[in-house]
C-alpha cells in the first residue's frame, strides 16, 4: 500500500484490511466480520473495486438468457419459497418437452445464448424427463449453454432413481448440461437451515455435490441468500466455506449473492437488506473470495440501478436478460420479468465498464466496443 493510500485510509477501521489486500494476504473470519458491518462504504467500495480491477479489468459480463421452470409441484416445503405448489393447487403445472421446446424457439429471435433450467422436486418427473429436455435444447442449437439443476434437484433425482450423484450428473452432462446454478445453498449455518429450509439437503451435502460436479468437469455457481434472519457472522462463515471448497475443487465459475424477497413466503419479520447492505455483501464477497474470478449482481434481485452501482463495489457481471423469470417474482420482486439487452449494455457502459456478452461458463467473450450494440 502506497504512503498516499495509507494516509488516506489511516482513520478507517478498514486500514488493517487494506494493508492485507494490497500485500496479497488472505483475509480471515475477523476481517470478514468488519467488512460485513462497516459503515465506511467509501473505503469498502474502493478496496473491492481495486481487487475487481486486478481480477477482470474493466470488463462486465451479461447474457441473453431464457428461464425454463418445468414444474412448480414440489415435495419440499421450504419456508423461504413462494414458487412451490402442491399437485392439487389450481396454479400447479407440469410442462411437457414440446411446450418447453416451443418456449425456447419463440425466444430465439432475441439472440438467446443461454437457457436457465430450475425445476421443483416433483416425484413424477424422472431423470429421463430432464435428459430429454437437455437433448432438445441442444437439438435446437448446440451453442445454447444449458445452465441448470441445483444441487437440491440433483440429490432428489439421485434418491428418486436410486443412483449415486456422480451418475446423475454424468447423464445430465452427456445430455447437454454445461453449468449448474448455486441454488439451495441459502445460508450454510445449521441454525438458519432449520428455520428457513427445514428438510433441504445439508450444507455439507450441497458442497459435496458441487465438488463432484467440479471433478466431472462441470462448472457451477455459488450463492448466498441474505437479508432474512441470518447474522453477519453467519454470512461470513458461509463465504469462507465456499472459499474452502474452491481451494479443494476449483470449479466455481462465479459467486452470486441473492437478496431475499419475502412476499408469499413463510418468513415473518425478516431483516431485509437495504442498499448499503447489498453493497456490503457484494464487496465483502469480492474481498474474501480471493479464489473466485467473477461476482454477479442480478438486477432482478437488486433492481437495475443498484446492480449498476454494484459494478463499483466489486461485481463484474449483471447476469442476463432473464426472460420468463418466475421464482423471485413469485416472492415479490417488483422488477420487470425481463430486461432488454441494449439496456444491460447501457447500464454497463454508464458505469464506465466494457460490456462483454458471455454465458455462465465464461468460455467465450464477445467484447462490445464503444458504440457497438446488439440490435
Secondary structure layout plus pairing:
Layout: H1 3-9, H2 15-23, H3 29-37, H4 41-56, E1 59-63, E2 65-68, H5 97-107, E3 114-117, H6 127-140, E4 145-148, H7 151-161, H8 165-175, E5 179-180, H9 190-196, H10 203-215, E6 219-226, H11 232-249, E7 252-259, H12 275-288, E8 294-295, H13 299-302, H14 304-310, E9 317-320, H15 327-330, H16 341-350, E10 354-357, E11 366-367
Parallel strand pairs: 1-9, 1-10, 2-3, 3-4, 5-6, 6-7, 7-8
Antiparallel strand pairs: 10-11
Helix pairs in contact: 3-11, 3-12, 4-12, 5-6, 6-8, 7-8, 7-10, 10-11
Q: Can you give a write-up of this model?
A:
With 375 residues, the protein is α/β, with parallel strands linked by helices. It has one domain (46-367): Alpha-Beta Barrel (TIM Barrel), CATH 3.20.20. The chain has helices at 3-9, 15-23, 29-37, 41-56, 97-107, 127-140, 151-161, 165-175, 190-196, 203-215, 232-249, 275-288, 299-302, 304-310, 327-330, 341-350, and strands spanning 59-63, 65-68, 114-117, 145-148, 179-180, 219-226, 252-259, 294-295, 317-320, 354-357, 366-367. A hairpin with an 8-residue loop joins strand 10 and strand 11. Helix 3 (29-37) packs antiparallel against helix 12 (275-288), helix 6 (127-140) runs parallel beside helix 8 (165-175) and helix 7 packs across helix 8. The radius of gyration is 20 Å and the shape is globular. Mean pLDDT is 91; it is low at 327-336.
Amino acid at each position: 500500500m502506497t504512503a498516499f493510500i495509507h494516509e488516506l485510509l489511516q482513520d478507517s477501521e478498514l486500514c488493517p484490511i487494506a494493508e492485507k489486500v494490497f500485500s496479497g494476504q488472505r483475509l480471515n473470519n475477523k476481517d470478514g466480520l468488519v467488512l460485513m458491518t462497516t459503515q465506511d462504504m467509501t473505503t469498502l467500495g474502493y478496496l473491492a473495486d481495486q481487487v475487481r480491477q486486478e481480477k477482470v479489468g474493466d470488463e462486465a459480463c451479461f447474457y441473453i438468457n431464457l428461464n425454463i421452470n418445468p414444474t412448480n409441484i414440489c415435495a419440499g416445503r421450504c419456508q423461504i419459497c413462494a414458487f412451490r405448489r402442491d399437485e392439487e393447487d389450481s396454479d400447479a403445472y407440469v410442462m411437457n418437452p414440446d411446450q418447453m421446446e416451443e418456449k425456447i424457439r419463440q425466444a430465439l429471435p432475441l439472440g438467446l445464448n443461454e437457457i436457465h433450467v430450475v425445476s421443483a422436486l416433483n416425484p413424477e418427473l424422472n431423470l429421463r424427463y430432464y435428459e430429454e429436455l437437455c437433448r432438445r435444447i441442444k437439438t435446437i442449437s448446440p451453442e445454447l449453454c444449458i445452465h441448470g439443476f441445483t444441487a437440491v434437484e440433483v440429490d432428489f433425482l439421485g434418491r428418486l432413481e436410486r443412483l449415486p450423484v456422480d451418475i446423475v450428473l454424468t447423464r445430465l452432462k452427456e445430455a447437454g448440461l454445461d453449468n449448474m446454478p448455486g441454488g439451495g445453498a441459502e445460508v450454510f449455518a445449521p441454525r438458519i437451515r432449520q428455520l428457513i429450509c427445514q428438510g433441504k439437503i445439508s450444507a455439507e451435502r450441497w458442497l459435496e455435490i458441487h465438488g463432484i460436479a467440479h471433478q466431472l468437469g462441470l462448472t457451477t455457481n455459488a450463492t448466498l441468500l441474505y437479508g432474512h434472519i441470518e447474522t453477519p457472522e453467519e454470512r461470513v462463515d458461509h463465504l469462507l466455506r465456499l472459499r474452502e471448497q474452491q481451494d479443494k475443487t476449483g470449479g466455481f465459475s462465479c459467486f452470486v449473492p441473492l437478496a431475499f424477497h419475502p412476499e408469499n413466503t413463510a418468513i415473518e419479520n425478516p431483516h431485509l437488506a437495504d442498499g448499503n447492505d447489498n453493497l456490503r455483501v457484494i464487496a465483502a464477497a469480492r474481498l474474501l473470495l480471493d479464489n473466485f474470478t467473477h461476482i454477479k449482481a442480478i438486477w432482478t434481485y437488486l433492481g437495475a440501478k443498484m446492480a449498476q452501482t454494484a459494478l463499483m463495489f466489486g461485481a463484474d457481471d449483471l447476469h442476463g436478460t432473464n426472460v420468463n423469470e418466475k421464482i423471485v417474482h413469485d416472492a415479490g420482486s417488483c422488477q420487470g420479468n425481463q430486461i432488454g439487452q441494449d439496456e444491460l449494455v447501457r447500464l454497463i457502459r454508464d458505469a464506465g465498464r466494457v460490456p462483454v456478452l458471455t454465458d455462465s461458463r465464461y468460455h467465450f467473450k464477445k467484447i462490445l466496443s464503444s458504440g457497438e450494440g446488439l440490435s
